[in-house]
Amino acid sequence: MRFFVPAISNRNNINYFEIQIKESYLNEDVFTGSIGQELLDSCLLALTTYRNLEQKREKFHIHFTNSSMQKDGTSAGLGIFSKLQFNLADHLNILITGEIDLEGNVIEVGAFSEKLSFF
Fold first, then answer.
1. CB count in 10 Å sphere of residue 60
2. I need a surface site. Which of 27, 41, 66, 84 has the fewest CB within 10 A?
3. CA torsion angle 42 83 32 15 (round to 10)
């Protein structure tokens, strides 16, 4: 299953990137794809929520495609968590956005109209 997250630049340009997740063979989680601190925080929140719900401890490599584009913000959290939950099937493409908390609740979906207008 492929998960895509919309991104809005400071100039209101809309783009999207794919979240790719594989098991990490290192003893730590790995994050790649030109990400900022808020997006890293979203990764950590999604991982903690996933691990607490599933009682799993494996380490992951989380990559965001389109590495030439700097990515940041909180609204990828729901997409990251969903990708962790449904990482098995490869036959669907999903576009998802939203911020999550440590309990897995969706808190906020920022710039929803702008993201929706792109599609």
1. 22
2. 27
3. -80
**Strand pairing category for 14-23 and 2-8:** antiparallel
Q: Which residues of 3-41 are buried (b: 16+ CB within 10 A; e: fewer)?
A: bbbbbbeeeeeeebbbbbbeeeeeeeeebebebeebbeb
Pairing relation of β-strands 99-100 and 93-95?
A: unpaired
Query: Position 98: which residue type?
Result: G
What domain count does the chain have? 1
Which CATH number do you get for residue 28? 3.30.230.10
User: pLDDT by residue (tens digit) across 71-114?
Assistant: 888 888 888 998 898 875 556 666 677 777 777 777 777 766 77
Q: CA–CA separation, 51 vs 85, rounded Å?
A: 10
Q: Which pLDDT band holds residue 24 (cuts at 50, 70, 90)?
A: very high
Cβ–Cβ < 8 Å for 46, 60: no
Domain range for 37 is: 2-118
